[in-house]
Write a structure and sequence with these properties.
This protein is an alpha/beta fold and about 280 residues long. The protein folds into three domains: about 80 residues, Arc Repressor Mutant, subunit A; about 100 residues, D-Maltodextrin-Binding Protein, domain 2 (3-Layer(aba) Sandwich), CATH 3.40.190; about 90 residues, Periplasmic binding protein-like II (D-Maltodextrin-Binding Protein, domain 2, 3-Layer(aba) Sandwich), CATH 3.40.190.10. The chain is built from ten helices and eleven strands. Helix 8 links the parallel strand 6 and strand 7. The protein is elongated, with a radius of gyration of 24 Å. Keywords: DNA-binding, Transcription, Transcription regulation. GO terms for molecular function: DNA binding; DNA-binding transcription factor activity. It holds the Pfam family LysR_substrate. Belongs to the LysR transcriptional regulatory family.
């Protein structure tokens, strides 16, 4: 097949149809008419000189269709990211949008101005805290430029990862109760990397425990631990002042901290900054 230039709108229409599994829904999402979307998909088939969908199964892709979808999805994302970045760079008050887990945000925030300079010298930076799923989604939807996520090792946008050692922390002077007494834990909600690491360690060691406080907000968990409510898993080197590591509980596995970047340039800048910011961890 001779070299062919494929318009991005044609690719976008095809990707939308596959993701929506229907022409009508895809048209609604794109703000176009259903006949227009159908014609654009037909145009793509003409340009690649091959059918994109199997005739015997509704919306099942052919081998060529699978290639067009996988590459097309990336092309649409890169195209939109390029336009977004151009618009942001032209704005005099552009800010670098950074996502951080609440568990390490307090310690890393003083270092973010250096990241801003390394990443192109935006006018300032905007910080969003959240869990791994939320930060990963924000990167994919171009709502964040750079993020560090806990427990995400193989995300599509992950460009580097570190192994962060975990420990049990409580108020100074307190000790974990010896077995068979019930340990009182302060944890993030079920499904989070910290929760699963802590609960898995306790179950594996057959240690009885109860969750006295469950909250996604790291600041709330720190307040609960500081008031003496219980013991919490935290990243070594990032525990707030006034809390210290306690023994007597099962060892915790290291937690993966991954760097996510919206573009290759931002990812490269983030890697340089994070390599120093996360120097306490072993590079993954």
């Amino acid at each position: 097949m001779a070299a062919t230039s494929i318009p991005i709108d044609v690719v976008r229409a095809f990707v939308a149809v596959v993701e929506a599994r229907g022409f009508t829904r895809a048209a609604e999402e794109l703000g176009r008419s259903q006949p227009t979307v159908s014609l654009q998909v037909k145009r793509l088939e003409e340009l690649v000189e091959a059918p994109l969908f199997e005739k015997a199964a509704r919306f099942e892709l052919t081998a060529v269709g699978s290639v067009c979808f996988e590459h097309g999805r990336r092309l649409v994302r890169l195209h939109d990211a390029m336009l977004d970045e151009v618009g942001r760079r032209k704005a005099p008050d552009a800010r670098l949008r950074i996502g951080l887990p609440g568990e390490i945000a307090e310690r890393l925030t003083p270092q973010l101005d250096r990241l801003r300079r390394v990443a192109g010298g935006a006018a300032g930076f905007e910080v969003v805290t959240g869990d791994a799923d939320g930060l990963s989604l924000a990167i994919r939807e171009n709502r964040l430029d750079i993020a560090l996520a806990l427990g995400v090792e193989r995300a599509e946008a992950a460009v580097a990862s570190w192994r962060a050692p975990l420990g049990w922390f409580s108020v100074r002077g307190t000790r974990a109760p010896p077995p068979p007494k019930v340990a009182r834990l302060v944890l993030p909600p079920r499904g989070s990397a910290l929760h699963e690491a802590a609960a898995g360690a306790m179950h594996g060691a057959e240690r009885p425990f109860e969750i006295v406080c469950a909250c996604a907000d790291a600041a709330v968990r720190v307040a609960a631990v500081s008031s003496g409510l219980g013991v919490a898993p935290m990243i070594d080197g990032f525990a707030p002042q006034g809390l210290e590591r306690v023994g007597g509980l099962p060892p915790l596995p290291p937690l993966v901290v991954s760097l996510l970047g919206r573009t290759e340039a931002l990812a490269a800048a983030g890697r340089r900054w994070a390599s120093e910011a996360m120097a306490a961890f072993d590079a993954g």
